[in-house]
């Protein structure tokens, strides 16, 4: 490996809140969907993160932690509404962070992307998810008092994470979940102060940040994951995303992660990419350069990185500050250490193809396949890069259809 690549990736970085991250590699969030009953963090999840904690990443961001037990994105999400599971969260943080990685909690509310097993589904407006209608209800528009309750809930969950010894939190504001729904004019048809202008649509995300900051104090890292765009006509656009990034940066956000897409248009999965995009690896590379021109706030880019040279060059050129890697960590939990030590120059993701086009193009197939390997690690075993995608699909269909 080029020594320059290793040195760039190994550089520590100090966030605006004053916390120093040991290197530039971040394991971005992947939903584990493996909690015990009632959202209790399971021994399996703790074992998974104990394994990842040995893998050398600067930051490990958890999968969806739901802040409301009445609004689940998946049946087995971890749910943190209060301090009921503080002992489990503390053990999770302790086991994961033994080797120097920082564990951050990704906090989420699914909004209209809550499957039908939820008793009630809410969103900014009553716009139903147009895909897989058999799985998703038409949502009920939120009352303003409920919006304020959700904002408070995000802050409450973040404070529990801090008390449990986690090193940071991330607001999930991407991929079509509730924060993302407020940002998009396709899903936010409101005419009050929470809808209409971009300033109003961004208010929800900004108020969540302010509530968390008030609770956790100035020295605790807060990040957000935001779409570069929703990749749909009339939805949250690239120009709007750049404006919201400026708003968040002005608030003092410690780390802004850029991704893209929704359940309707799963750009974050990397399918149907232009060949030019695939060659330069990072799915949203052009956007991150534009974002850097708008702000000096720390930027994390996730999606498509596969070679140390491309990662290091992006950091050296000041296009971004952290490299986000997700699915390859479900195939090789130690890839960060191997990159940082120069043992490997490229990383591999699993090949999730059944050979049946309509199945392979479904965004959830990638998620389900990698989730199976995460569950394997939760049992104390190593992942299987050759796991049969068809077997995973049939299991998913049996359980969910």
Walkthrough of the structure:
There is one protein chain. The protein has 401 residues and is an alpha/beta fold. The chain has 14 helices and 14 strands. It has an 8-stranded parallel β-barrel with strand order 3-4-7-10-11-12-13-14, surrounded by 5 helices. The protein has a two-stranded antiparallel sheet with strand order 1-2. The chain has a two-stranded parallel ribbon with strand order 8-9. Helix 10 links the parallel strand 13 (299-302) and strand 14 (322-325). Helix 1 crosses helix 10 (308-316), helix 7 packs across helix 9 (285-294) and helix 13 packs across helix 14. The longest helix is centred in the middle third of the chain and has 20 residues, at 144-163. The chain starts with a helix and ends with a helix.
Question: Mind telling me the CATH superfamily name of the largest domain?
Answer: Aldolase class I
**Total tally of structural domains:** 2
The main sheet orders its strands as: 3-4-7-10-11-12-13-14
The percent range for strand residues is 5-15%
Task: Label the CATH architecture of the largest domain.
Answer: Alpha-Beta Barrel
CATH class of the largest domain: Alpha Beta
The main sheet comes to: 8 strands, parallel, barrel
The chain-level structural class is: alpha/beta
Strand tally is 14
Query: In terms of per-residue confidence, which ranges show pLDDT below 50 for 5 or more consecutive residues?
Result: 265-273
User: Would you list the SSEs in sequence order as H and E?
Assistant: HEEEHEEEHEEEHEHHEHEHHEHEHHHH
Shape: globular
């Amino acid at each position: 490996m080029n020594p320059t690549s290793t040195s760039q990736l190994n550089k520590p970085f100090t966030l605006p809140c004053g916390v120093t991250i040991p290197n530039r590699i971040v394991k971005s969030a992947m939903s584990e969907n493996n909690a015990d009953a009632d959202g209790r963090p399971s021994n399996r999840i703790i074992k998974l993160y104990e394994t990842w904690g040995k893998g050398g990443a600067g930051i490990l961001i958890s999968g969806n932690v739901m802040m409301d037990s009445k609004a689940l994105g998946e049946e087995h999400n971890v749910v943190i509404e209060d301090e009921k599971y503080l002992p489990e969260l503390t053990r999770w943080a302790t086991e994961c962070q033994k080797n120097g990685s920082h564990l951050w909690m990704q906090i989420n509310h699914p909004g209209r992307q809550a499957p039908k097993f939820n008793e009630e589904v809410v969103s900014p407006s009553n716009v139903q998810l147009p895909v897989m209608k058999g799985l998703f209800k038409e949502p009920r528009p939120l009352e303003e008092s409920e919006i304020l309750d959700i904002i408070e809930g995000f802050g409450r969950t973040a404070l529990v994470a801090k008390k449990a010894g986690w090193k940071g939190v991330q607001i999930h504001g991407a991929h079509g979940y509730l924060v993302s729904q407020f940002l998009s004019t396709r899903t936010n048809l409101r005419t009050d102060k929470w809808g209409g202008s971009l300033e109003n649509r961004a208010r929800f995300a900004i108020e969540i940040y302010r509530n968390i900051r008030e609770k956790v104090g100035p020295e605790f890292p807060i990040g957000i994951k935001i779409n570069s765009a929703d990749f749909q006509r009339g939805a949250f656009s690239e120009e709007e995303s750049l404006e919201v990034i400026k708003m968040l940066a002005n608030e003092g956000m410690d780390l802004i992660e850029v991704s893209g897409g929704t359940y309707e248009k799963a750009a974050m999965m990397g399918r149907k990419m232009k060949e030019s995009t695939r060659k330069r690896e990072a799915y949203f590379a052009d956007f991150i350069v534009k974002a850097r021109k708008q702000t000096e706030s720390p930027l994390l880019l996730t999606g498509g990185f596969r070679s140390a040279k491309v990662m290091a060059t992006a950091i050296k050129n000041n296009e971004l500050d952290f490299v986000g890697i997700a699915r390859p960590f479900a195939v090789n939990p130690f890839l960060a250490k191997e990159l940082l030590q120069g043992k490997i120059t490229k990383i591999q993701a699993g090949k999730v193809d059944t050979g049946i086009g309509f199945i392979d193009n479904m965004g959830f197939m990638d998620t389900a396949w990698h989730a199976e390997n995460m569950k394997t690690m939760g049992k104390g075993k190593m992942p299987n890069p050759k796991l049969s995608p068809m077997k995973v699909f049939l299991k998913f269909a049996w359980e969910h259809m």
